[in-house]
Amino acid sequence: MSIGIALSPFRLDKTDNAVDAAVAAGRQVAAAGLSSLWFGQTFSHDSIVLSTAVGREVPELELGTSAIPIPARHPLLIASQAQTAQAATHGRFTLGLALGARAFTESAFGVPYDRPIARLREFLSALRAVLDTGTVDFQGELLTAVAPMPAAVAGAKPAVPVLVAAMGPQALRATGELADGTLPFLVGPKALAEHVVAPITEAAERAGRSAPRIVVMVAGVVTADVEGARAAAEQSTAFYDDIPSYQRIIELSGASRAADLVVIGDEQAIADRVAEYFEAGATDVVFSQTDLSTPADEQRTWQLLGELNRAA
Question: Where is each Luciferase-like domain found (predicted)?
Answer without folding.
Answer: 15-283
